[in-house]
Amino acid sequence: MAYSGVKYTNVQDAQEHRLIDMYGTELGVSIPDQDGKDLKQVPSKESNSAARSIVESPWKRRLRQYGVPGIYLALFFLYTVYVVFSLVYDPAGAIFVCLLEAVLLFIVIFKIFKVDIWKPVLSLHSKFLVKVKRPLRTKIRIIVTVVVTLALVVFLIWDIWSSVRRFIPIGGMAIFVIFLWITSTSPKKVQWMTVTWGLLLQFGMGIVILRWPVGYAACKFLGDSVSQFLSYTDAGSKFVFGDPGYTLHPVAFGVLPVVIFFSAVVSVLYYLGIMQFFIRVIAAVLRFLMQTTPIESFATAAHIFIGQVESSVVLKPFLNNLTNSELHAVLTSGFATVAGTVIAAYIEFGVPAEHVISASFMSAPAALAVAKLAFPETKSTDFKISKEMELEVGKERNIMEAVSVGAMGAVKLIANVVVNLVAFVAILAFIDATLSYFGSRVGHPEVSFDFLCSYIFMPLAFIMGIPWSNCRVVGKLIGKKIVINEFLAFADLGGYIKAGDIQGRSAVISTYILCGFGSIAAMGINLGALSAAEPRRRKDFAKLMLRAVVAGNIACFMTACVAGILYQDEPVMISITNSTNDLNSTLQNLTTNSNITDIVTSSTPVSVTVL
């Protein structure tokens, strides 16, 4: 028998050579080339024995191939039986267990049986492209776009006719669009179909989340579930830092441990392939509706769940071949969205979870629309097939290893947050002291960074729908987000909400304004990460960075405008933190009762906060 050109007298030796070829670097053994000579002169009897131990006997191989999946299937069957009993016992309270059943079914189909649903979908799409010629497809797209746009316009006129102040964010969106078009690199090359669908998707998600009771209930259920899930971090914090010692340092011992916990959970989701599935689905939707390139759609979808620093590793093989327009879109989507691990920290500050989660999703299509308006494509792209981009399933051997890898991976993120907080808080204190000194010389010692930002960004806050009485407070947050750090801005927002300085409409819109990674500090972080991933494009990164930061912030501001247009002042932001039963009853009541203010019907005490 021969393997790689080397002849062997028995199958066992050939298997050993194959395994040594695969694991030779780790085992430190010599690997023969086609002439039978060693490529690595480091023979080791211990290494060879380790390689022999890797060889599995036939029954072990069959056990691994059929036994483990069989165990998983048996467990899934038992859980399905449990779900049936749960539905019989209490149908209204079984929403969560049914959702978990769907997740487990997904894992069984895609993780165990390796079923690829994309083949039939792509096959149908290919058949459609063959049967329907491009001119006809273009006409169909134009007709659908016009119909959907007119339907949206009619809905908005009917919905906000009696509320004059909700017209203000419409003017704000118009100002942003005009500004982007005037400053565009090629105004005549703008693909308005892409821009229009980006805004339509943004409004569509806003209507589902902010105006449709069932959609709001689902998002509220998700937000409260995430908040409740993240609260279990306190158990680890109490054990490590002591109780009540960990409460004395809420950021270091309260917020940052949440990042560790959530990072471990995200790592498990990547190991199971769940995150990759959602990213592919979102990317496919964006590409189909907005007609963006595969790399733009993929990067934008990925940035909803991972940061731009992490995505630079995934995009590394393609960065050198991207056009400047594609590169600008990738950068803009990174600045307009927030990674999932950081969202956990923002929620811990006391910001409404459902709106933090929805803001990142709503800003994704807005980021592509803004990017293609500010920097239209003028060249042909090299990427035609979306399969060129793929997030690998976790290489960990089991879930426990995935948890450990995820927790350890958060160390770098936490270190980055800590050093930036220390540096920027210190710099901000120095700036405040300096401004106060110069102000006191003319009788105004109250002058500070927040004081200046409150006046500079007041008009910006107003055109996004913030009531004039809160514009100065929100102006401070906008300035701190852009100039200093969005982490500090969210910390201040949480404090304002808890203190009652910002409530209702202002709290909701402020959440959408701040939900982005578009600070000056982020420019340096992303420039370093992308330059390390692809040094040949360093000049392009530096040239596009400022424009992308501005575009990313405008995408967040346009999302805030959508929230300002659609948000009503009824007390729809109800924080229910008791148990899953309360969450299930909330969703059940909303689906059967049109009066959203009557959703708190549980007999157990709940905390109700009208923001």
TrEMBL record:
It is found in: Cell membrane. One of its GO terms (cellular component) is plasma membrane. The chain crosses the membrane at residues 70-88, 94-113, 140-161, 167-183, 195-214, 251-272, 284-307, 327-349, 413-435, 447-468, 509-532, 544-567. It is a multi-pass membrane protein. The keyword Transmembrane helix applies. Keywords: Cell membrane, Membrane, Transmembrane, Transmembrane helix, Transport. Residues 172-243 form the Concentrative nucleoside transporter N-terminal domain. GO terms for molecular function: nucleoside:sodium symporter activity. InterPro entries: C_nuclsd_transpt, C_nuclsd_transpt_met_bac, CNT_C_dom, CNT_N_dom, Gate_dom. It comes from the Eukaryota. Residues 253-350 form the Nucleoside transporter/FeoB GTPase Gate domain. Residues 355-564 form the Concentrative nucleoside transporter C-terminal domain. The keyword RNA-binding does not apply. Belongs to the concentrative nucleoside transporter (CNT) (TC 2.A.41) family. NCBIfam families: nupC. This is Sodium/nucleoside cotransporter.
